[in-house]
Amino acid sequence: MTAIAVPKLIIHGGAGSTPDSKGTEAWQALHRIVTAVYALLESGESAAAAAVRACTLLEDEPCFNAGTGSVLQSDGQIRMSAALMEGEHQCFSGVINVARVQNPILMARALQGQPDRVLSDRGAAELARELGLPVYDPLTEARLQEWLGDRRQGTTKRMAEVTMGTIGAVALDRQGRLCVGTSTGGRGFERIGRVSDSATPAGTYANAQAAISCTGVGEDILDEGLATRIVVRVTDGMTLREAVERSMAEGVARRRDFGAIGVAADGAIAWGKTTSVLFAAYHDGEKSGDTRDA
Fold first, then answer.
1. Fewest beta carbons within 10 Å, which of 28, 51, 103, 237?
2. Contact at 8 Å (CB) between 202 and 228?
3. Does some domain include residue 287?
4. Assigned domain for 53 exists
5. Where do runs of H (alpha helix) occur along the chain?
6. Rounded to 5 degrees, what angle do the CA atoms 201, 140, 160 make?
7. Cβ(229)–Cβ(273) below 8 Å
8. CB of 62 within 8 A of CB of 69?
9. Does any domain span residue 221?
10. Which domain holds residue 234?
11. Where residue 47 sits, what CATH number does that domain have?
């Protein structure tokens, strides 16, 4: 592993159908968080620590669909999923359909290096108790009103629109290590027991060459094996940008709705989308920016 001089960071807060679907609040939050977390990388923190910190801050922003502000499932309950994967040892961990915790990404981090690294519902609940995580209600009034409105109208349209608020972070540290984290509240109004892509290698994947976090319609991401596909393409010789662009072109051809962000071991940062907008911000070591003009 070769040390590098300049760490890299990119984070996302989902993808959407219109640029105004979240307003300025999300963009402001993304820039605030990317600035704070990049400072950690500059000070020598690991990629894993940076990715987890970015995800916790994003989970705590109610304008995103992860942690506080997660959408409700068909029975009116919130169940969240999160995953973490560090590239050096290619270690994946995650929780699926966990309830009543503030930061699911902390549970994914706790499972790194454990013999059982992906836990669902009851197992995840037991893990939360073992970790001593306080009981927390992530429900916001806005999400509750969205759910009630959809029930009254007999439609899931509005909930489907806000599901694009999945969050994620990809970091490259001064030691050349990559790490990616992704967290989501799910699709909204989904059948109980539905598994999101976020806590699978389709939505969150890293090795020593590249790391990718995805957002969008989970089933589309699963069908494409999107994060893993992009990472494998980089491993096989494509540049990160080439791998992302080819994967997005395939998604467009198959009418998929998703986006992805990533960082490669050579320091390249890339993103792509099949939707109208991808809510993402980055710091390339010289400046911060976002994806509004991309």
1. 237
2. yes
3. no
4. yes
5. 24-42, 47-59, 104-110, 121-131, 141-153, 157-162, 218-224, 226-235, 240-253
6. 50
7. no
8. yes
9. yes
10. 8-281
11. 3.60.20.30
The least confident of 4-8, 132-136, 207-211 is 4-8
Count of domains forming the chain: 1
Predicted confidence at residue 24, as pLDDT, reads 85
Residue 237 confidence (pLDDT) above 80:
yes
Write the CB contacts of 100 (distance below 8 Å, at least 6 apart in sequence).
128, 135, 136, 137, 138
Contacts of 293 (CB under 8 A, 6+ apart): none
Residue 45 included in any domain: yes
Name the residues annotated as catalytic. 166
Contacts of 166 (CB under 8 A, 6+ apart): 12, 14, 64, 65, 66, 182, 183, 184, 185, 196, 198, 214, 215, 216
Give me 45's structure tokens: 């923190």
User: Does the pLDDT of residue 20 top 80, yes or no?
Assistant: no
Q: In this predicted model, what pLDDT tens digit does every residue of 76-127 receive, in sequence order?
A: 999 999 999 999 999 999 999 999 999 999 999 999 989 999 999 999 999 9
3-class secondary-structure state, position 146: helix
Beta strands 288-290; 178-184: pairing state: unpaired
Cβ contact 241:212 at 8 Å: no
pLDDT at 229 over 50: yes
